Every structure is written in structure tokens, then in C-alpha cells.
């Protein structure tokens, strides 16, 4: 594998611009826009917000600014989703009865936006698979279909995040005294999961130029889409319900998103593990692989697990603080907590073996794949087969 790392002389480090000084006018304009949006939200909704929610609002604005500085496409993604969601708010005009309007019914209501998200995930999957097949046949690195896969992936993320924001507003229209952030049940968190997974993959795709891996990641996302559609039809999970008492806490607003950044990263890593095994097999057979080199895939997998581990650790700490607030103790070895610790330990060992022991290749790829099943059981299996303090999260 070609080493693209450049050695920077020590004296050059002294002359490098700081991160802040390297920001351009567009970055500061974006920061100003996010601050203005937060001010507007506080002006319109401040009477419904306590001190904690105000802190979360401004923390979210700061996070959006950082993401926009770090991942440039977020500078248009965030304002666009906010604009679309606000358009839906205006169209509702304070009454859920206006949901039969053309734009709301077919595009901007939460359910229609989420259905567009599901559709474009499938479109992206087909584009990535067909694009990769054509790239192999033509011996090229990219083509129009792979580019379309990227575009469809972005559209799915825009539609999904817009749907969540609009669903938040709809919950207040339906139940003014019981409105809540849409991360309270399995349906809502799976939509959030699809948004986070798409955004994380698109970042790594742009960072490492690995469009051919899109088919692996979006295959798993398509499976989740299938579950979301089944769950909506069979259980009417898309219907907005009031929060149960156990979830009526501001801790939920920060614990759940952090958790699902971790889940999204671990799922991406598992799909990349499959791709790495495929690439290793081709390399050992002396064949020219249509995939990126296995070392490149493993590097992306390592980055994903490192980010996922960080946010899962933060989510676990936040969960302990929430437990102390709700139940009077930080940790109870409840089945959900126990399996969360198992997931954390699994990826802690993975990172240790790679960074300290120097492990590489097939073992870590298989480990990442098996880790997906451990994570899935911790998230869904515990709720289905075990009971405890978190039994309210069942299917």
C-alpha cells in the first residue's frame, strides 16, 4: 500500500496555522448562522424550555458548528434540514389537521420524509452495487452510478433528519403537554440510526475515497429499512405516543444520540470487516481485487471503531448518571447494563489488540463482524429475551 503520510519538519510545525486561524469566511458565516438559529429557537420556544433544555440547545448549536468546520458538507446539510423542518412547521400552522396539504402529505410530514429516507437508502444501495460492478468491468475507480450512490445517500440522510425534526414538532401538535424529542422508541431510534450511519459512512467515503464500499454499508442499512417498514405496518410504530414516565427525563436527549453514534460506527465497522475479508482473499490468491486494498479498509474500520468506542463510552457514562437520577444508583448490573458493558469491553479489547499488540488483518475483521452480533443482542436481544429495569424497551 502506498504511504501518503508526509513527514513534517519540526521547524515547520511552528509556522503552521492553528485550527481556528485556518477557518475561512464560509466557516464563520456558518457559525453565525447556527448561533442565529439557536437564538430564534430560544425566542420562539424559550417559554417551554427549562435550564437543562436551554443548555442542550446551545450545546447542539456548538456541536453543529464544530461538525460544519470538521466535515464541510455539514455546512449545507444542517441548514437545509432545519429549513425543510421549519417549512413543515409553517405549513402545519399550529394544527395537525393541516397534514393533508400536498407538501406535507407527500414530502414534509415526518412519515412522508422518513419514507423518502427509506426509498433513497434502497436507491443508494442499487447505485453502489451497479456502480461497483461497472467499475470492475471498466477497470475504473469511479463512475456516474457510484456518484449517484453518494448523492442518494446524502438525500436519505437529509430526509431522515428532516423527518425526525418534524416528528418532534408533531408530537407537540398532537399532545401539547406530552411533546418530546423523537428518540423514545425503537422506531424513532432506528431512523436516527440510519441518519447517523449514512453520515458517518459518507464522511469516511470522502476521507478515504472508498466509494466501492458503499454497497456493503447500505446493504445493512437496507435490512434496517426492511425492519422499519415491517415495524410500522405490523405494530403501527410510526404513530406518535406519549412518553412513559421512565423516559420523561432530559438525560434521554443526550444519552440516546451518543449511544447511536456508537451503534452506527460499530455497524459500519462490521460491514467493512466483510469487505476486508473479501479483499484479503483476493490478495492472497494473487488476484486483482475490485475493492480497495485490505489495509485501507482496515484503516477505515479502525477509525470507525475508535469513534464509536468514544461515543459509546460517553453514552454509558451518561446512562449511569441518568440511572443515578432515576433510580438512586449508578449501576445495577441490570441485563441491559451488563450487555452494554460487554459491548464496551469487546471494542476496548479490539482497540487494545490493534494499537498495543499490533494485530492486523483477518482476525480483527472477524472480530468486528462478530461484534455486530454482540451489539445487536445488547440493543434488541436483551429487550426481547431478558427482563430488568430496562424492560420498557421491548418490541
UniProtKB/TrEMBL annotation:
One of its GO terms (biological process) is cytochrome complex assembly. Its main location: membrane. It is a multi-pass membrane protein. One of its GO terms (cellular component) is plasma membrane. GO terms for molecular function: heme binding. It is found in: Membrane. The chain crosses the membrane at residues 25-43, 55-71, 76-94, 114-136, 145-166, 186-204, 216-233, 260-279, 300-324, 339-357, 364-386. It holds the Pfam family Cytochrom_C_asm. InterPro entries: Cyt_c_assembly, Cyt_c_biogenesis_CcsA, Cyt_c_biogenesis_CcsA/CcmC. The keyword tRNA processing does not apply. Keywords: Cytochrome c-type biogenesis, Membrane, Transmembrane, Transmembrane helix. Residues 183-390 form the Cytochrome c assembly protein domain. NCBIfam families: cytochr_II_ccsB. This is Cytochrome synthesis protein. It comes from Bergeriella denitrificans (Neisseria denitrificans). The gene is ccmF.
Amino acid at each position: 500500500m502506498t504511504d501518503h503520510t508526509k513527514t513534517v519538519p519540526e521547524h515547520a510545525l511552528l509556522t503552521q496555522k492553528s485550527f481556528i486561524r485556518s477557518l475561512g469566511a464560509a466557516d464563520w458565516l456558518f457559525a453565525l448562522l447556527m448561533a442565529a438559529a439557536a437564538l430564534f429557537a430560544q425566542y420562539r420556544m424559550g417559554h417551554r424550555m427549562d435550564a437543562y433544555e436551554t443548555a442542550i440547545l446551545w450545546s447542539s448549536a456548538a456541536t453543529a458548528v464544530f461538525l460544519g468546520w470538521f466535515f464541510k458538507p455539514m455546512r449545507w446539510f444542517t441548514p437545509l434540514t432545519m429549513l425543510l423542518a421549519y417549512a413543515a412547521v409553517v405549513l402545519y400552522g399550529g394544527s395537525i389537521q393541516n397534514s393533508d396539504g400536498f407538501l406535507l402529505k407527500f414530502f414534509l410530514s415526518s412519515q412522508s420524509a422518513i419514507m423518502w429516507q427509506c426509498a433513497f437508502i434502497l436507491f443508494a444501495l442499487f447505485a453502489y452495487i451497479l456502480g461497483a460492478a461497472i467499475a470492475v468491468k471498466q477497470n475504473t475507480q469511479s463512475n456516474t452510478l457510484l456518484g449517484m450512490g453518494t448523492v442518494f445517500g446524502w438525500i436519505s440522510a437529509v430526509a431522515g433528519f428532516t423527518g425526525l425534526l418534524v416528528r418532534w414538532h408533531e408530537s407537540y401538535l398532537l399532545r401539547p403537554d406530552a411533546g418530546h424529542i423523537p428518540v423514545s422508541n425503537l422506531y424513532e431510534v432506528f431512523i436516527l440510526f440510519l441518519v447517523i450511519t449514512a453520515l458517518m459512512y459518507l464522511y469516511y467515503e470522502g476521507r478515504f475515497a472508498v466509494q466501492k464500499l458503499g454497497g456493503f454499508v447500505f446493504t445493512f442499512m437496507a435490512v434496517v429499512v426492511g425492519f422499519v417498514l415491517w415495524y410500522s405496518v405490523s405494530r403501527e410504530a410510526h404513530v406518535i405516543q406519549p412518553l412513559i414516565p421512565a423516559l420523561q427525563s432530559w438525560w434521554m436527549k443526550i444519552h440516546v444520540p451518543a449511544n447511536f453514534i456508537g451503534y452506527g460506527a460499530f455497524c459500519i465497522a462490521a460491514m467493512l470487516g466483510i469487505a476486508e475479508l473479501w479483499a484479503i482473499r483476493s490478495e492472497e490468491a494473487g488476484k486483482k481485487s475490485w475493492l480497495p486494498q485490505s489495509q485501507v479498509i482496515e484503516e477505515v474500520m479502525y477509525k470507525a471503531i475508535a469513534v464509536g468506542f468514544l461515543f459509546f463510552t460517553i453514552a454509558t457514562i451518561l446512562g449511569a448518571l441518568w440511572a443515578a437520577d432515576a433510580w438512586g444508583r449508578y449501576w445495577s448490573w441490570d441485563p441491559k447494563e451488563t450487555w452494554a458493558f460487554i459491548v464496551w469491553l469487546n471494542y476496548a479489547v479490539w482497540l487494545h489488540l490493534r494499537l498495543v499488540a499490533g494485530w492486523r488483518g483477518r482476525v480483527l475483521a472477524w472480530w468486528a463482524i462478530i461484534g455486530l452480533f454482540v451489539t445487536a443482542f445488547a440493543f434488541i436481544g436483551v429487550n426481547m429475551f431478558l427482563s430488568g429495569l430496562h424492560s420498557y424497551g421491548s418490541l
